[in-house]
Amino acid sequence: MSDISAFQGRMNQVPATLLNLLGIQPPSRIPPQIEGIPNTLRSNHLIFAIFDNFGLLECTYYQPKFLIGKSEAILMLETENPYTPHVLQEVIHGNPDADFNLLTFMAEHGRKVTMIARPEDLEGVKGVETRPSDSDNRTYIETVKILNRTDFLWIHFIDFETLYKQYSFRPPKEITQKLISRTDKWLKVLHKQATPGTLLAVLGTHGREQAPEIEYEGKYADWKRASLPICILIKK
User: Fold this and answer.
1) Is residue 42 pLDDT above 90, yes or no?
2) How far is CA 59 from the centre of its chain?
3) What is the pLDDT of residue 55?
4) d(CA 156, CA 143)
5) What are phi and psi of 73, to 5 degrees?
6) Backbone angles phi, psi at 235, to 5 degrees
7) Above 90 in pLDDT, residue 169?
8) Which carries the bigger pLDDT value, residue 134 or residue 47?
9) Which among 62, 206, 219, 223 has the fewest CB atoms less than 10 Å away?
10) Pairwise CA distance, residues 183 & 204, whole Å
C-alpha cells in the first residue's frame, strides 16, 4: 500500500471531485475538486460506498485485503466535523450556502443516480432512485441487483456505527476485524461483477480505533493524523 498515490484535500471538495471523476463540470458555487487525481480514474460508472468509523488508522490496523491490494489512490480528507451526519451533508451539498445537491445535479446532467441508504438519509432526496435499507446485508443485496444499471450508485454501510455504539465506541478487535473483512469481501464481489471501467470510491468517515503499537513505515510515517477520513479509489 506504500506505493499508492496520496492526495490531500477537504471533505467539502468531495462533491466536485466526484463530478470530475464522472466527467461532469462542477459548478463554481461549490469548493473546487481535489487537485492531482489522474484522469485515468475517470469513469462513466461510479460506486460510492460510505463506511462509518473507518479512517486511515482502521485501514492500516485491520488491513482489508481487497481495499489495500487494489487501491490506486487515497484521498486524505480534512473536515471540521468528522462524524457521519456532518460528512454526509458536506458530500451532498459541498457548500451549505450554495443551494447545491450533488445527486440532483448529477441527475440533471443526464446521469442515472441510485441511492441505497437508511430511510432518514433518503428524506428530501428528489430526482433520483432511492432504495431504503436498514442493514448492511440488505444494502449489499440491493446493490447487487442494481449494480450495472445506474451511473452513480450511493451505498452506505451502517454496521460499523452500530458496532461502535453497542460497545461504547471500543468494540473488541476480533469483532471489528470480522466485520471489516466481511465488508471487504463484499466490495471485492462488487468489483468483480461491475462493468469494466467502473470506479469504486470508498469513503471512510473519522476513525476511532486507538492502536499505539502500530509502527508506521514509508508514507504512513508522514501521515500524522492517522484517524483522518479517507477515500480510497479503485478502477476496474
Assistant:
1) yes
2) 13
3) 78
4) 10
5) -155, 150
6) -105, 130
7) no
8) 47
9) 219
10) 13
Estimate the crossing angle of helix 159-166 against helix 173-193, to 10 degrees: 180
Q: Which helix (H) or strand (E) holds 234?
A: strand 230-235
C-alpha cell belonging to residue 37 = 487525481
118 and 35 in contact (C-beta within 8 Å)?
no
- Output DSSP code: residue 74: E
Give Cα separations from 71 to 57, 94, 114, 156 (angstroms).
16, 25, 24, 19
How much is the average pLDDT of 84-111? 89
- Please, are residues 5 and 74 in contact by the beta-carbon 8 Å criterion? yes
C-alpha cell at 40: 485515468
User: What is the DSSP secondary structure assignment for residue 31, as one 8-state letter?
Assistant: P
Contact 229, 77 (CB under 8 A): yes
Residue 117 φ then ψ, to 5°: -160, 180
Dig out the grid coordinates for 49 from the structure. Answer: 460506498
Pick the CATH number of 5-235 from 3.40.720.10, 3.40.50.150, 3.30.930.20, 3.20.20.70: 3.40.720.10
Q: How far apart are CA 193 and CA 129, in angstroms?
A: 21
